[in-house]
Amino acid sequence: MKEFKGRVAVVTGAASGIGRGMAATFVAAGMKVVLSDIEAPALEETTGALRAAGADVHAVRTDVSKPDQVDDLAKQTLSKYGAVHVLCNNAGILVGGITGWKSSLADWQ
Predict the structure, then answer these.
(1) pLDDT tier at 90, thresholds 50, 70, 90
(2) Quick check: 20 pLDDT over 90?
(3) Among 28, 56, 69, 102, which residue has the fewest nearby CB atoms (within 10 Å)?
(4) Residue 60 CB neighbours (<10 A)
C-alpha cells in the first residue's frame, strides 16, 4: 500500500502499549482507525486523546477471546468505514509467564 491517507486500520489492544503506538502512527499517516480493547476506561481515554488531536477514530470494546465480539468488531468497522486496509491483531494475554511458543493448546483456549 503506497497511500495511507483516508485508509482504514483496525488495531486490537489499542488502548495502551504497542497497540496505542500503532494507532497513533496510523492516525499521523492520515488513516481512520478503529480502536479495540477489552479495557473500557483505557479505551475511552485513548479514543478521547486521539479525537482531541483531530483523529477520525472509532472505539469498540472487544474481548478477542470471544468470537462473537470479534464478529461485532468487524461489523462495526465495516458499518462505520466500509473497508479495512490494515489489521493489527495486537491484543493478547500472557498466561503464567509462558511464552507463546511454549504454550499448550489449553493455554491458548
Answers:
(1) very high
(2) yes
(3) 102
(4) 22
Amino acid at 83: A
Q: What is the pLDDT of residue 33?
A: 98
pLDDT greater at residue 1 or residue 63? 63
Q: Which three cell numbers stand for residue 52?
A: 482531541
Q: Grid coordinates in use for 11? A: 488495531
Report the run of H or E that residue 59 belongs to, with start and end.
strand 57-61
State the cell numbers at 18: 504497542
49 neighbors 23 (Cβ within 8 angstroms): no
At 97-107, the pLDDT tens digits run 656 667 677 76
Q: Return the C-alpha cell found at 28.
A: 499521523
Closest CA to 30 of 46, 58, 60, 8: 8
Residues 81, 103 contacting (CB under 8 angstroms): no
